[in-house]
């Protein structure tokens, strides 16, 4: 009897070790090599092996293989395009459409850990890439061209070093990406969906002495804080030979995004313009005094940005706002309310609640701009959230402010900033000028210029209110 039990247990162990494992997905340490270069995958991105099929997230397909990928949440469809080639896959369906022809798959796309993954072999081969798999080392190789290359010489190496551009600093603030470079280069800029991203590729470019260097073999990330509509900004050495630096700006809660680019004194500058879903406007009251809320940005524990001579934005905001208040107090048809009159910090939510509880007719938030990494940047810009009444107010106040300040007109822009997004009345946020620009800072801190700016803001408010 004892011998029979032992024989049974031994047989069970044999079956356990040699029977196929039917686990849904096993995470591997898989690497992906594209044309001889290892792809730098974000730390949170997982390549998974599902029943001996290597599956990768759509995000990797889009960013690293440079395909255009569209994810339809409602239909669970993945549409992948490159040139005239189109592939459509559906989560859970073991068939795909390739240029309107039906093709069978070894495995259907799946959702694992809230991420859509697709079979890399099928997608890559259909897009003209040769796929290899090293099971022992868990390496996927992709080749778009023959990987053999002529032997390099010291002369060639020196020539490559001489022609490689270097990135020395990457910053993101005020919806603006600023990249410091050795010399001007025209990047390749791509917009991608699901999630919304802007991918900026700098050809023949490597990293210099960055203050936040990217970890070897992976992506670095900027410390961006709580910036509206921004998920993260990450960067990596995307290719080695020739070198190519890639910066990805990942966004959220935007219905569309556009951009303007310029190159000023060794700095590539990308200005983002984000559009959000519109919110119905609140009609203006037809009787009594008009309630105008003036909001000096930041304050107290929140100094705001820093000027080129290390002054705090909060002090400029308050000084200008108090001058606006003084002028508005002389207007018999206007009741002015301040979100702060001293160096204190009301939260953004408290500022919004104050204006909404008062059922104010107009909300104006006053700020100073700054990009310390680009002291040449200059100008006045005005933000509104996508409401017709806010846009009208923004255009009128901006016109008066630009005329008074005499600075570069950076335009009126849509922006999803909390104090203008969550207020229910016509609301604007003024970026009067750049404290990071020395002549502009001197002007903005002067009493005479602040008085002119304050009068311009009041004139704009009165014109909008038809007073």
Can you walk me through this structure?
25% of the residues lie in helices and 36% in strands. With 467 residues, it is an alpha+beta fold. The protein has three domains: 26-143, Copper Amine Oxidase, Chain A, domain 1 (2-Layer Sandwich), CATH 3.30.457; 160-275, Immunoglobulin-like; 290-465, Aminopeptidase (3-Layer(aba) Sandwich). The strands form six sheets. A six-stranded mixed β-sheet has the order 26-25-27-30-28-29, sandwiched between helices. A hairpin with an 8-residue loop joins strand 20 and strand 21 (230-240). Helix 5 (313-328) crosses helix 10 and helix 7 (388-405) packs antiparallel against helix 10. The N and C termini lie far apart (104 Å).
* Helix count, DSSP H or I runs of 4 or more residues: 10
Can you identify the CATH class of the largest domain? Answer: Alpha Beta
- Tell me the strand percentage band: 35-45%
Low-confidence stretches: 1-28, 145-161, 277-287
Oligomer: single chain
> Which structural class should the secondary elements be placed in?
alpha+beta
Gyration radius from CA atoms, angstroms: 28 Å
CATH homologous superfamily designation of the largest domain: Zn-dependent exopeptidases
Question: What's the overall average pLDDT, rounded?
Answer: 79
Task: Give the helix level as a range of percent.
Answer: 10-25%
Shape: elongated
- Per DSSP E runs of 2 or more residues, the count of β-strands stands at 30
End-to-end C-alpha gap = 104 Å
The major sheet is characterized as: 6 strands, mixed
Tell me the CATH architecture of the largest domain.
Answer: 3-Layer(aba) Sandwich
Main β-sheet, spatial strand arrangement: 26-25-27-30-28-29
Would you tell me which CATH topology of the largest domain applies?
Aminopeptidase
In the residues, how many domains can be counted?
3
């Amino acid at each position: 009897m004892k011998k029979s039990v032992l024989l049974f247990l031994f047989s069970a162990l044999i079956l356990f070790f040699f029977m196929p494992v039917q686990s849904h997905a096993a995470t591997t340490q898989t690497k992906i090599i594209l044309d001889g270069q290892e792809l730098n995958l974000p730390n949170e991105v997982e390549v998974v092996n599902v029943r001996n099929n290597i599956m990768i997230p759509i995000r990797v397909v889009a960013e690293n293989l440079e395909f255009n990928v569209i994810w339809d949440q409602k239909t669970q469809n993945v549409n992948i395009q490159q040139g005239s080639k189109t592939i459509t896959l559906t989560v859970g369906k073991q068939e795909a459409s390739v240029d309107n022809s039906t093709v069978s798959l070894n495995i259907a796309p799946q959702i694992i850990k809230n991420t859509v993954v697709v079979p890399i072999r099928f997608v890559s081969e259909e897009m003209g890439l040769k796929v290899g798999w090293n099971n022992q080392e868990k390496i996927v190789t992709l080749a778009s061209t023959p990987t053999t290359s002529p032997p390099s010489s010291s002369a060639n190496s020196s020539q490559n070093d001489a022609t490689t551009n270097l990135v020395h600093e990457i910053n993101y603030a005020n919806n603006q990406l600023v990249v410091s470079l050795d010399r001007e280069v025209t990047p390749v800029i791509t917009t991608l969906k699901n999630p919304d991203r802007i991918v900026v590729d700098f050809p023949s470019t490597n990293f210099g002495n960055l203050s936040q260097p990217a970890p070897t073999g992976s992506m670095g990330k900027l410390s961006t804080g709580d910036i509206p509509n921004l998920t993260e900004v990450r960067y990596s050495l995307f290719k080695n030979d020739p070198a190519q630096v890639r910066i990805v700006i990942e966004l959220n809660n935007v219905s569309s995004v556009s951009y303007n680019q310029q190159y000023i004194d060794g700095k590539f500058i990308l200005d983002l313009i984000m559009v959000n879903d519109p919110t119905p406007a609140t009609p203006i009251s037809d009787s009594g005094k008009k309630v105008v809320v003036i909001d000096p940005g930041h304050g107290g524990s929140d100094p705001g940005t820093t000027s080129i001579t290390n002054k705090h934005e909060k002090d400029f905001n308050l000084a200008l706002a108090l001058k606006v208040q003084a002028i508005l107090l002389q207007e018999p048809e206007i009741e002015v309310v301040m979100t702060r009159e001293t160096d204190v910090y009301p939260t953004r939510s408290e500022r919004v609640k104050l204006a909404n509880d008062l059922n104010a007719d107009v909300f104006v938030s006053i700020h100073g701009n700054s990009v310390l990494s680009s002291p040449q940047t200059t100008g006045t810009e005005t933000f509104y959230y996508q409401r017709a009444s806010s846009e009208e107010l923004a255009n009128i106040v901006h016109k008066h402010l630009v005329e008074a300040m005499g600075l570069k007109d950076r335009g009126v822009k849509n922006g999803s900033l909390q104090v203008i997004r969550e207020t229910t009345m016509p609301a604007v946020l003024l970026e009067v000028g750049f404290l990071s620009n020395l002549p502009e800072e001197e002007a903005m801190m002067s009493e005479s210029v602040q008085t002119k700016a304050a009068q311009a803001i009041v004139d704009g408010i009165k014109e909008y209110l038809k007073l």
